[in-house]
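Below is how a single chain appears once it has passed through the pipeline. First comes the sequence as given, then the structure the pipeline wrote out for it. We keep one example in the README because the format questions we get most often are answered faster by looking than by reading.
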Amino acid sequence: MIIRILLAILVLCFPSLAPAQTHNAERSVPGSREQVQLSFAPLVKKVSPAVVNIYTKRTVSKKAKHPFMDDPFFGQLFGNDAFGGRMRRQVESALGSGVIVEPDGLVVTNAHVIKGAEEITVVLTDGREFDARVALTDEPSDLALLRVNPKGEALPYASLKPSESLEVGDLVLAIGNPFGVGQTVTSGIVSALAQSSLDISDFNFFIQTDAAINPGNSGGPLVALDGGVVGINSAIYSRTGGSLGIGFAIPSEMVATVLAAEKMGQSGKRVVRPWLGVTAQRVTSDIASSMGLAKPGGALIAKLHSASPLKKAGLAVGDVVLSFNGKAIRDPSEMKFRMATVPLGQSAKLEAVRKGKKGMYEVKAMAPPDEPARQEKVLQGQHPLNGATIANLNPAVAVELGLGLEEEGVVVLKAPRRSYVGRVMDPGDILLEINGQKIGAVGDAEKALSAAATPEGWSLVMRSNGRVRRVLVR
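Resulting structure:
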């Protein structure tokens, strides 16, 4: 009692000895055994049953190496390609991770995990195995959905949580099957949000974390501390194949668009998403200064398609988009990502600046128009393009082939590998001229190919990956 009285007197006489009362007062040294024993274990027990291991098999053809090539003398003398070698078919196995997001057996994983798979097996943590089929693959976002038949059995599942709720520094868990060693949990923090300086998918917009992610973790969930799935682990930055503490996850908002597409009956290898019809560039400090902006940021519109929903909303070349539905836009990748998460038919509000004046614009989410008519045509005849499938290039075709807004004309959709055209052209190549005749539509190509070859042969001018090249076929 006497000690307490003395302490009270000291505090009154020397206020600096009193505990600091700040907004961080809730942060303190653990004061009980229960606080010392705080653990992620309850969270892991809640989520990990919904995380699955994914095993795939596919058949590949490989060139068999001649036994002599294992001999140091012959290998050095003739090289590894000597003596030919027959093509042999082999079965390759691969592994990855996934997470069940619906009790009826819908699994989310990465598209690259199941690419080319002929057999897919999903294994739960309790040892149950199920054959799976691909419900939807969306290669641009590197996401895929698998369906398993639980045959009346109850399946655990996890729920999505908006990644917008995350802040840099928040704790997260990564769960998956690295290197096939079995389910593993790693923890870390959110290192960065809206990372877009990458080239992993068509939508370069990721959550960066330092939670250890290794090969085999792909497709597994990134989990917030309340158990919500905020992302799907997709890639790592590594020079050795191991984790360097820089991992990337696809935000849950993009996952939600793929789930919605599957419910609407979409299938194939691409989800139909809103189309912007715009070419934009990052706003640098010099551009910001010249336009009177306080700081760099936003997306500068460099080109608009005539059917662009931005143009219909009143935006023009030279405008800078600053925000999207109240979220600041840092660069064109973020604008593309934000629009991709808006359901078709709904509208989004964009804030843009034009000549120093800000304005609000309502942009409707629309699918890429399939106009003008694509007029797909399989070419046949005594000419070098025999067997190729061509079409008029329009926004829908350009999106399907991953081509830029500036491309127009006639595009090659298919070029059989075993044909001559398959050796000189690839899908996505654009026909510019045939024997000196300009090609602007499918009819132009058919007309030019119906004529006889010139004395020099067939002269083809095409654009491949942005480069123009000429091929002379004799």
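The first strand starts at residue 51 and ends at 63.

See the next section for the split statistics.
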